Amino acid sequence: MSPAALKRAAAARAVELVEDGMRLGLGTGSTATLFVELLGEKVRAGLSVVGVPTSEATRSAAQAAGIPLTTLDDTPELDLTIDGADEIDPQLRLIKGGGGALLREKIVAAASRRMVVIVDGAKRVETLGRFPLPIEVVPFGLGATTRAVAAAIGAAGCDGPLTLRRGADGAPFLTDGGHLILDAGLARIPDPEALARALVAVPGVVEHGLFIGLATGAIVAEAADGQPRIV
Ligand code: 5RP
């Protein structure tokens, strides 16, 4: 069974959590986009919700799906955020930001009473770190910030290369906020809380992709006898 089919199964189950009148955070990535598309079907059938998109890409997808949008200025508290993840561990700690939307994703998740993560089973890990950890930094002072990030990573008991993310054209990838992303190939993050504390203390770091204490639930789709199974 393809990852796309599993992602769709997780997204479809998440749509069942949405109730009339809810204020929703709309995540970013291929799984979250499937959720947005399926939610759009419900909205066109009469469901009343408003959504805050976590990226310009999701804004476009939500508009195309006919989902009414709002902002955290007009709607500072959300009922439920549905978002994907790059990794999830047994404590519902996440690595996010593979799509570069980690900053808005974290702001929206923090403004939500509940955050439910939708993933295929391949995203489950015992220890976070196999997926390179995205670290969003301001362009000013990139060389110095990169050195300080490397030191913070070492102080938190991790090790591995930092790579400036680039787009398909080879130019540095720019986030929706106009920032850069350093991807940290750490392999294992033995103490995610310590690493999170060390990274936010570095001037120039805007945000990092460790989501700790934000997810309240997860919908994980795995293949069983050729059918998606939610675990
Ligand atoms: C974007 C994210 C995504 O949720 C994450 O990359 C998972 O994406 P996908 O659903 O395409 O596998 O954090 O910043």
Automatic annotation (TrEMBL):
Regions that span the bilayer: none
InterPro entries, A to Z: NagB/RpiA_transferase-like, Ribose-5P_isomerase, Ribose5P_isomerase_typA_subgr, Ribose5P_isomerase_type_A
Sequence positions that bind substrate: T28, G29, S30, T31, D83, G84, A85, D86, K96, G97, G98, G99, K123
Stored Pfam families: Rib_5-P_isom_A
Reactions accelerated catalytically: aldehydo-D-ribose 5-phosphate = D-ribulose 5-phosphate
Subunit structure, as described in the record: Homodimer.
PANTHER family registered for this protein in UniProt: RIBOSE-5-PHOSPHATE ISOMERASE 3, CHLOROPLASTIC-RELATED
Protein known as: Ribose-5-phosphate isomerase A
Gene it is expressed from: rpiA
